[in-house]
Automatic annotation (TrEMBL):
PANTHER family: NLP_P60 DOMAIN-CONTAINING PROTEIN-RELATED, PEPTIDOGLYCAN DL-ENDOPEPTIDASE CWLO
UniProt record, GO biological process: proteolysis
Protein name as annotated: Cell wall-associated NlpC family hydrolase
SUPFAM superfamilies xrefs: Cysteine proteinases
Species annotation: Actinomadura hallensis
Domain NlpC/P60 residue range list: 294-429
Keyword Magnesium appears in the UniProt entry: no
Molecular functions (GO terms): cysteine-type peptidase activity
Taxonomic superkingdom: Bacteria
Region of interest (Disordered), ranges: 1-20, 270-290
Alphabetized UniProt keyword annotations: Coiled coil, Hydrolase, Protease, Thiol protease
Family membership: Belongs to the peptidase C40 family.
Coiled-coil blocks: 117-144, 200-262
Length: 429
């Protein structure tokens, strides 16, 4: 029995003796009415407890939003720096590729010069060999002529040699012909040697030039590749800084969202307490009360916002939280859009498939001007054809949603107002 009812019984059974009977009845009636009113107000009070800490003020939220804007501006500036650094990296990469190709060309020319130098050396060696052979042949012939009495003692050879003077003359004439032929051969070999020597000097000069060109090309290639390496390090540093700032931005956005939700809950709680005095005679509120933080949609929103900044992973996400995905997401632990929606609504007690197709049909359609936190908002390539739905977000209020956006992105808060918005669903299990 309620305490108020128990007080009523005492009041009606034991009125003060000094009170007139009419006064006692009026006191009993007043006490009974008050007890009924208290019994009706108890559930409302228990459903909406008074906050134990001050609600965030509008100034707190404005400060937090200003911080979000500042950090978003930092991210924007860093993205601009990254784009500039990427452009410089592309330019240096092109220059390095050109330097490498010049190096490859010089290497080919050097190989050809080395071959030309080897060929010239071979020609010179061949000319030297033939010259030595000709000289050796000439010396041998001179010795033979001497042995045949046509050598140094020509008078003796003419008088007593074979055939007498006529034989001597014949042998001398033949020797002269042979000597001239050998002399021509020696001259020809000498000329060949001179030409080969010219070729050798030319080949050596060409080889020296190409060696120097090769050295310069090698140095240019090394410097170009070093420049690319340094620029890549710069790009990596800026990319790391961008990720750090994006994490800061995500935290600032999450804090702003928490402050807004805390303020909204505090305002709703205050309105709920004020509504306690507006009951009709039937004991029901005169109008629908505000959505409480225990509503399934609110639970789903809180569950999703917990993972702000988590990487997008194609096929990622289970009812237990982020997971490694498939294909492009195989090495990334995170959520894709429908995986995040499935996880969040599981926390609210509603089972969804990991697919936007069945999530679209998981509950009644909701007009866009009647959205409530937790409603699923869908996006399609053709907004007249649900079969082209490609993305889902979780509405959090004020035209915003929490979403796992795309490969390379992270779970974030974004506007629902896009050209490909097709509609919304309120999951009902």
């Amino acid at each position: 029995m309620a305490p108020g009812a128990e007080g009523t019984r005492r009041a009606t059974s034991s009125p003060p003796r000094s009170c007139p009977r009419g006064l006692a009845l009026r006191v009993a009636a007043f006490t009974s009415t008050a007890a009924i009113g208290m019994s009706l107000l108890v559930p409302v009070a228990s459903a909406q407890p008074t906050p134990t800490e001050p609600a965030p003020s509008a100034e707190d939220i404005e400060h937090s939003e200003r911080q979000v804007r500042e950090r978003a501006a930092e991210v924007g500036r860093t993205k601009a720096k990254l784009a500039q650094a990427d452009g410089e990296l592309d330019r240096l990469a092109v220059a390095a590729a050109a330097a490498v190709e010049r190096y490859n060309g010089q290497r080919l020319e050097l190989q050809r010069s080395l071959q030309a130098h080897r060929d010239a050396q071979a020609r010179l060696s061949d000319a030297d060999r033939r010259l030595e052979e000709a000289r050796a042949g000439l010396a041998s012939m001179a010795a033979q002529l001497y042995r045949n009495n046509t050598g140094y003692d020509q008078i003796s050879s003419a008088l007593v040699g074979d055939g007498g003077p006529q034989g001597f003359m014949d042998r001398a004439a033949m020797a002269e012909v042979l000597v001239k032929r050998r002399t021509v051969m020696v001259d020809r070999v000498e000329a060949s040697k001179n030409v080969a020597d010219v070729f050798r000097r030319q080949a050596q000069r060409a080889l020296d030039r190409h060696k120097e060109a090769m050295r310069r090309a090698e140095e240019a290639r090394r410097l170009a590749e070093d420049a690319v390496s340094r620029q890549q390090e710069s790009v990596d540093r800026i990319e790391a800084e961008k990720r750090r700032l994006e994490r800061r931005l995500g935290k600032a956005e999450a804090r702003t969202a928490r402050l807004k939700r805390a303020r909204e809950r505090a305002l709703q709680s205050a309105k709920a307490h004020q509504a306690g005095a507006a009951f009709t005679g039937s004991g029901r509120p005169a109008a629908d009360g505000p959505i409480t933080s225990a509503a399934p949609g609110a639970i789903a929103v809180r569950a999703a916002l917990k993972w702000l900044g988590t990487p997008y992973s194609w096929g990622g996400g289970t009812i237990a939280g982020p997971s490694r995905g498939i294909a492009h997401g195989a090495g990334i632990r995170g959520f894709d859009c429908s995986g995040l929606a499935m996880y969040a609504w599981h926390k609210a007690g509603v089972q969804l498939d990991h697919w936007t197709g069945t999530q679209w049909t998981s509950g009644p359609r909701v007009p866009l001007d009647a959205l409530r936190p937790g409603d699923l908002v869908f996006f399609a390539k053709d907004t007249s054809d649900p079969d082209t739905i490609h993305h889902v977000g979780i509405y959090i209020g004020k035209g915003q949603m929490v979403e796992a956006p795309y490969t390379g992105g992270r779970v974030r808060i974004a506007s629902i107002h896009r050209g490909d918005l097709i509609g919304a669903t309120r999951p009902s299990g």
